[in-house]
Design a protein that fits this description.
The structure is a single chain. With about 550 residues, the protein is α+β, with helices and mostly antiparallel strands. It has 14 helices and 28 strands.
Length: about 550
């Protein structure tokens, strides 16, 4: 059932999304699942069938699964087994081992053919009521008013379309019209190199260990990565003084691929093209009722594999906040936390990608030799490392204890995911319990919280989940989900922070932790204060 629109000023749609790439499409699904009318305006008449991204991490897999495509992800992905930066001689400058049993319930790294992922999301979007996708519609104007935004688009045949909406989100890529229309400046780090990209399909199965490799050869920095079942990608950096037109030829691609055993006899060259990566972020992500997400908000080098992942994090963070604002559960100021939280995280991802790029993109032999000597000396005796945990939030909508200036862990962290069992069903926590706010506790919620606080949580459609040890019988309370911690993930996690309760946001970041009844009450009250302190007077909530 669609949420009640308490505003008297009528609109054609609740949210307009500009751009129907994987980020815009993901946002449309997340909003439609919450019952909102969404119109997506896409300038291309047909889907873009060429891949850009080749992988996403385990946290992003979990976020994508929240759109409803989780059961099909394994069909279009292939787990990566590792990632190395190597010298020209083959020594490992960086060695990361991936596992299929990652901390967020999914493989650490998932290679994919991006058009296949977009088809999955498109099929999910088509199954949801409330979404209208208008292809061949190029946005040419945005007029933001106090109560609504008017978006003007032109069609391929020259017609004009005007839509009235509450919010606009620009997911329209690196050359974003929305960003330019808002006159938003960007911070550009000036770190940019041109590479030849070669997508190939091997004629016979071939094992690559590790799956992903950066060869830091000053004679030609080179990338080898998986790109989904039955596909691989090689990338070759354009050298100083090298002609782009000469590099961007199939003959050049085959010449560079041949030393890796990739020839016309062993593989099909699906495409070869040059591209130039950039490192930059938009200085503002919100102007009035218009927001930026994905490549419209940030661009980064590919070396950490975080470009598309960052865009997915953007819209998962934004979707639940727009939902609360549209339902008048929170003031518009909640949306400001989107920019605060995500810009800081995106900036950190860009800086990390640039740092890796400065290791990879060295073409001076003397500088490369010095790099290799220094790094290898520091690595001596070290085994392959595990990937770092998902980056925590460091500000924004997070719990702070009374009188404390700093955020205390685990607030801001991404909560891990393991298997749980409930009512005879076992599976990943998100699949068994569902999505949205979660109060995860070892206490009896009815003993720890009064009816007012429980009613507030219910109004947010919070899943109240009590963790039980194996063999413990549930108490049968209808509003409490009693789960057994099958993989022993959650009980040790709470114990690590001496906590009896965790309040988790819909994007899986921990809002805050509590130890005992008094702490739990303060935790809930702080969320209510941050969400509802400035709710418009007389706002009407939806039923159910």
């Amino acid at each position: 059932m669609r949420p009640q629109n308490v505003h008297s000023n009528p609109t054609d749609t609740d949210v307009v999304i500009v751009g129907n790439g994987p980020i815009g499409a993901t946002l449309s699904a997340l909003l439609a699942q919450r019952g909102w009318r969404v119109t997506v305006l896409e300038r291309r008449a047909r889907p873009y069938r060429l891949p850009r991204a080749t992988s996403f991490d385990g946290e992003t897999a979990r976020l994508l699964a929240a759109t409803g495509i989780g059961p099909d992800l394994d069909r279009i992905t292939e787990p990566a087994n590792g990632y190395q930066l190597r010298t020209a001689a083959g020594a490992a400058l960086l060695d990361i081992a991936f596992t299929t049993d990652g901390p967020y319930g999914w493989p650490d790294a998932n290679t994919m053919h991006q058009p296949a992922l977009e088809e999955l999301i498109a099929a999910r979007v088509a199954s949801l009521p409330g979404i209208t996708v208008l292809r061949g519609h190029e946005v040419v104007g945005i007029a933001d008013g106090e109560q609504r935004v008017e978006v003007t688009a032109t069609t391929d045949d020259g017609a004009t379309c005007v839509l009235a909406t509450r919010w606009v989100v620009g997911c329209d890529g690196a050359n974003s019209f929305v960003r330019d229309h808002l006159d938003v400046s960007v911070t550009d780090l000036g770190f940019s190199y041109e590479w030849l990209l070669c997508d190939i399909e091997p004629h016979q199965p071939r094992e690559f260990i590790p799956t992903n490799v950066q060869i830091c050869d000053p004679a030609r920095p080179t990338t080898l990565v998986g790109s989904g079942p039955g596909r691989r990608r090689w990338e070759f950096m354009r050298l100083p003084g090298e002609n782009t037109a000469e590099l961007n030829r199939d003959e050049t691609a085959w010449r560079l691929l041949e030393p890796f055993g990739v020839t016309p006899d062993t593989a099909t060259l699906l495409r070869s093209t040059t591209y130039m990566f950039q490192a930059r972020w938009a200085d503002r992500w919100r102007v009035g009722h218009v927001l930026l997400a994905g490549d419209a908000a940030h661009l980064m080098p590919p070396f950490a594999g975080q470009g598309m992942c960052s865009g997915v994090r953007d819209v998962v963070n934004l979707a639940w906040k727009l939902d609360l604002v549209l339902r008048d559960r929170a003031n518009e100021s909640l949306v400001d936390s989107y920019a605060e939280e995500r810009r800081a995280q995106a900036k950190a991802a860009i800086l990390a990608s640039v740092q890796l790029g400065r290791v990879v993109c060295v073409t001076d032999p003397a500088a490369a030799a010095e790099r290799d000597t220094t790094v290898l000396a520091n690595r001596r005796g070290r085994q392959a490392a595990r990937p770092e945990p998902a980056k925590p939030l460091t500000g924004g909508l997070l719990h702070r204890r009374p009188g404390a200036e700093a955020i205390e862990p685990p607030a801001g962290a991404v909560v891990p995911q393991g298997r749980v069992s409930w009512q005879g069903r076992s599976g990943l926590f998100d699949e068994v319990v569902g999505h949205g706010f979660v109060l995860l506790t070892t206490d009896d919620p009815h003993a720890a919280l009064d009816e007012d606080r429980l009613s507030f949580l219910a109004d947010l459609e919070t899943r109240v989940v009590r963790l039980l040890p194996p063999g413990h019988a549930p108490d049968g309370a209808a509003d409490v989900i009693d789960v057994v911690d099958v993989d022993d993930v959650y009980l040790p996690y709470l114990a690590r922070f001496a906590a009896t309760s965790l309040l988790v946001r819909p994007d899986y970041h921990v809002f805050g932790a509590a130890s005992g009844t008094g702490d739990a009450e303060a935790l809930i009250d702080d969320l209510r204060h941050q969400l509802l302190a400035a709710v418009p007077t007389g706002a009407t909530h939806r039923a159910g």
